[in-house]
Amino acid sequence: MVPLSWYIVLSAVMFCIGVFGFLARRNLLIIFISIELMLNSVNISLVAFSHYLQSMTGQILVFFVIAVAAAEAAIGLAIIIAYYKNNPTIKVDEINLLKG
């Protein structure tokens, strides 16, 4: 039996890697991958706590988080592809299209 603390440590490490990738990189694709990694680390902790507490609530909530992550990835990648057709860069520092 794997203890709960191992799952929480794994989730925390994955979340920290995602935060580092989000803050350190300037490529939009890497930023989206980092957000997905953070959402998946939250899913791991939700399932671990749900199993530990013998409740299905956390596992049901994971399905909603996965649905939101899939929608975010689909819409985000569509925006990146539409932007890339006009400008050949996806670096965050060089994007000024949305400035008003």
Structure description:
This protein is mostly helical. It has one domain (about 5-95): Helix Hairpins (Orthogonal Bundle). The protein contains three helices and no strands. Helix 1 packs antiparallel against helix 2 (about 30-50) and helix 2 runs antiparallel to helix 3. The longest helix has 30 residues, at about 55-85. The termini are far apart.
Supply the key terms.
Helix Hairpins
Number of domains: 1
The CATH architecture comes to Orthogonal Bundle
Q: How many helix segments? A: 3
Alpha-carbon Rg, integer: 17 Å
Could you provide a short overview of the structure?
The chain has 100 residues and is mostly helical. Helix content is 76%, strand content 0%.
Topology, pairings included?
Elements lengths: L3 H21 L3 H25 L4 H30 L14
